Structure formats: C-alpha cells, structure tokens
Amino acid sequence: MSFNKMRPLLYCTGATVIFLLYYVYLEKLGTYKIEQQQTFYPPSNRNFLRNINDGYHKLLNIHFRYKHIPELCNESDRYVIGVISSPDHLENRNIIRLTWGQKALGIKVFFLIANTTDEALQLSINSESLAFRDIVQGDFHDSYQNLSYKHVMALKMVEDNCPNIKYLVKVDDDTFVNTPNLKEFLDQYDQKYGNSSNLLCNIMEYSPALRDGRWKVSVEMFSGEYYPKYCSGYFIIYPMAAISAIYRESQNENVKFLWVDDAFVSGVLAEKAGINHTSVRKLSLDYVNVTKFMEDFEEFGGRPFLVGRMNLDTGDLKTLWAFLKDHVPKTNILERLELHHL
Fold it and tell me: Which domain holds residue 250?
C-alpha cells in the first residue's frame, strides 16, 4: 500500500492515540473534566452572537466564519494565551499542552489555525478539537501569506468572546512561555499599570519594507520606506483596550491589507488606533542558548523571564519546562521591566 493511501489512516490513528494518552495523563493529574464541546458555530445565547450586519462575519477584507470555536472564556478568566499554529503542527500543540500550556496553571490557552485542503488532516483536527476543546479554526486558507488574517482572528476571538479578560498574550507555537512567571507579572503589572493600553513586546524600530526576498512587499501594498514601530510577533501582550481599538481599526474598509502580520497588526493598525509600545526585552531570553541558560542559571540565568527565544524545537521546550519547575527566580519580575510611555 502506498504512503498516500495510508495517510488518512495514519492521521486518524495518530489523533486517537494522542487523545487516549493525553486522557490518561490528565486523569493522573486529576484535572480532566468531560464538558460539552462547542464546534463550528457559537450557540445562540452567547453574548458575541450579533447581527450579521455589524461585522461578525468579516475579517479584514474577507467574509469569515469559524470552523471550530470552543467555549472560550468564563467571567473569572483574566488572561488568555492565543497560540498561532498551523494545521499540521500537532506535535507542537501537544508539547505545549503537556508543558507550559497545562490547564492546571490557570491561564486559558487556545490554538489558532486556518483551513486545510487535506481532508485527512482536517479529520484529525476535528478529533483534536473534540478531545481538547482548544482549537480556534477560521475558514480562510492557512498559508504564510495569510498570517495577518490569523493574527487579527486572535483579536477577534477575544473581542467577540472574552469581554471580561484583561490581557491576551499572542505567541507562536515554537515559543516557550514561562506561564507561572507570566501570571505573576500580569497580576503585578495590571495592579500598577492597568490603565495603560500599550502593547508589551520586543520592539522593532526602523525596519525597512523589503522589496525582494522572502519578506518582500510591493509598493502598492505598503508605500513607505520603513514600517512603523511594531512588535516582534512571537510574543505580544495585548491589553483589552488595545485589542478593541486595533480590531476596530482592522475592520475599517479604508485600511490597506499588508501580509507581514507583525508590522501590519502591531505596527500599522496600532499606529492608526493610537496604541503605543512598551519593551519587555529584559524579560525575554531572546536568542540565549537554552543549554547555557540552564548550566549558568545562578550566575547568568537566575532571573525571571516571561518568554524563551523563538524557534525552539520540541525537545528544548520539554527540557526547559522540566528545568524551571525546580528553579525559582530570586528577583521581582516587574522590577526588571523598563517602562516607557505609560
């Protein structure tokens, strides 16, 4: 039998095995609870189900529907992490579920993906959504050029479903989040700077709009020489006030679409919405070697951080999570942050 003929069977078998293993894991933790799965279209009693004419089925410049959307936020939820993923990144999602995205840590984690034309893969996603209730899937095509749609979908998800939250943390699925430190930091930050609408991130300034190569953008799409100040997109903290303002701006028919999502959403749209930025680079491991960080924790790494560097493989994610459970930072996490424009 050829590999192509076996692919549907492999996807379905893999999804079933993953679900059973994860069920056993959560049974041991005592955190698994069977709840009704909400998929496809939201129920009529949800506060976000609005008249179709007010933009609910619009995402930037396209007609939009959710293919999967679970029960999202309770009234008590204050923080949400939205993980930008791809349909075939099941391994990344499962590593996150078993490490920094564990439900027991008290912050809701959702994975944002778009549409796939692979029927077997979609069946696997359907099973995954049913098993974990954490998949938000839009009906647009999942591609690198469509990342801006996925990024804005994260804001839309919160704007429509989570009116009581304080912050959305947007990350990529190859990024390590120090969830216990993040929760402590957001508690402290909100108490002291809760009125700020600034985006918290690693700030990119004076980045040129490239006209060739992987990141090329046409003059018709973006005419400026440099992008506005924006966030490195692998880790962005969005206050609720910023979410609402930027999402409203994204629905403006006069806004010209830009496929480079970091520059578009946290730069162009943020600037139009009057939203500024605060650097959290001191709370990021950035490009630090994970092995060196663990070996020199007391001397160089014995400090709090919110996010590891980008492009970590799944082995590094597991290793770093296991290490941090036994290594507690010695300094206040908010004290390390240089605050600007507050």
Answer: 3-336
Query: What is the C-alpha to C-alpha distance for residues 153 and 142, in angstroms, rounded to an integer?
Result: 12
Q: How many domains does the chain fold into?
A: 1
Q: Does 81 fall in a domain? A: yes
| Cα 46 from Cα 24, distance rounded (Å) | 32
Q: Distance between the two ends of the chain, CA-based, in angstroms? A: 63
Core vs surface per residue 295-313: b (16+ CB within 10 A) or e: eeeeeebeebbbbbbbebe
Taking phi over 0 as left and psi of -120 to 50 as alpha, with beta for the rest, 8 belongs to alpha
Q: How many residues does the chain have?
A: 342
Work out the pLDDT band at 112, boundaries 50, 70, 90.
very high
- Look up the pTM and report it: 0.82
- What CATH number is given to the structural domain containing 70? 3.90.550.50
Give tens-digit pLDDT for 211-227.
998 889 999 999 999 99
